[in-house]
UniProtKB/TrEMBL annotation:
InterPro entries recorded: Restrct_endonuc_II_DpnII (IPR021191), Restrct_endonuc_II_DpnII-like (IPR007637)
Role description: A P subtype restriction enzyme that recognizes the double-stranded unmethylated sequence 5'-GATC-3'.
Catalytic reactions of this protein: Endonucleolytic cleavage of DNA to give specific double-stranded fragments with terminal 5'-phosphates
Annotated protein name in UniProt: Type-2 restriction enzyme
Source superkingdom: Bacteria
Lineage: Bacteria, Bacillati, Bacillota, Bacilli, Lactobacillales
Enzyme Commission number, as recorded: 3.1.21.4
Keywords: Endonuclease, Hydrolase, Nuclease, Restriction system
């Protein structure tokens, strides 16, 4: 890979080519796939109730047995949303009768109404829960809910991808400042920058939180960092490229009293291969667009210390 100085001497087109050629195929660490702490917490809080409901596994007349159990222990109903993979406990349900007429009814597992046990059992029967417990559950509903929670947690992977890049940035910043007088922070606002270093940083919106900042006491400069990773294409890439182009322009025109170096660390071979044009446009306006390989090669350190 080129040195940082060699990279910066290139034309925008050549810089873009180097950027595209060194994009990463993934930012997914092993922790990306399942948030086990969340799975354990959501499963363990119902362990007592689920073990009590193991009594129903394999019962022949399960609707009658369930009615008896819930009549005597209505509090056991509160675990039912977990069995149907629902984060919602207060459910509005559509009913279609034999005449194709539509109506709605409510089933509230958050505030159990012990006068409506029959309605709860009917819902669980129609939802397939009782059939599952009777014919397909083997030994433990606790183990089943662990599986459900893993499945629900997979929906959070999209958000975890962004978090992964923020974690990678934090690792790189800690490495960068080690043994130096550089100061740093993550998820920092302009107000926090002002309070900590007495530097004025213009903002494009009141909700702006920068992924990372590094302050260099030697040159009084502050490096502001945004980071993201795109494992797939879409309109988001074009909008982000435009957003950060405008942010660079804001720093250029309004940061007259502060030495600001804006760095956009972006990666994702699949994503940016589908959105090369907006990235090419961004390269003509943002001097410091780098990827993770370039960070590893010392580009970020060079920007901070120059």
């Amino acid at each position: 890979m080129l040195s940082f100085d060699e990279y910066m001497k290139q034309s925008d087109d050549s810089k873009l080519k180097n950027f595209m050629d060194t994009l990463a195929i993934s930012n997914r660490k092993p922790t990306y796939y399942v948030n086990w702490d969340k799975v354990y917490n959501n499963s363990d809080k119902y362990e007592y109730e689920l073990n009590a409901l193991n009594f129903l596994i394999g019962k022949d007349n399960i609707e009658n047995e369930a009615t008896k159990v819930f009549t005597e222990h209505p509090e056991l109903l509160k675990v039912m949303p977990a069995l149907i993979a629902s984060r919602e406990a207060d459910l509005d349900v559509l009913k279609i009768d034999d005449e194709a007429d539509f109506s709605f009814y409510n089933v509230n597992f958050k505030k159990i109404d012990d006068t409506k046990i029959t309605e709860y059992v009917d819902f669980l029967s129609e939802a397939g829960v009782l059939n599952f417990i009777q014919k397909h559950a083997k030994k433990s509903l606790v183990d089943y809910v662990y599986g459900v929670e893993v499945g629900i947690d997979s929906n959070g992977r999209k958000n975890r991808s962004g978090k992964q890049n923020e974690e990678i940035l934090e690792i790189n910043l800690k490495k960068l400042v080690k043994g130096t007088n550089l100061e740093w922070g993550t998820q920092v606002t302009a107000d926090e920058i002002k309070a900590r270093w007495n530097l004025d940083v213009p903002i494009d919106k009141s909700t702006r939180i920068y992924d990372g900042v590094v302050y260099n006491p030697d040159n009084k400069g502050i490096t502001i960092i945004e980071t993201n990773f795109y494992g797939s294409g879409g309109s988001k890439l074009k909008s982000v490229a435009g957003e950060f182009t405008e942010l660079q322009a804001l720093f250029n025109t309004e940061a007259t009293e502060t030495d600001i170096r804006f760095v956009w660390i972006s990666d994702g071979k699949v994503g940016w291969t589908t959105a090369k044009k907006p990235m090419a446009a961004a390269f003509t306006h943002i001097p410091h667009i780098i990827n993770l390989a370039m960070v590893d090669a010392g580009y970020l350190e060079a920007i901070v210390k120059k």
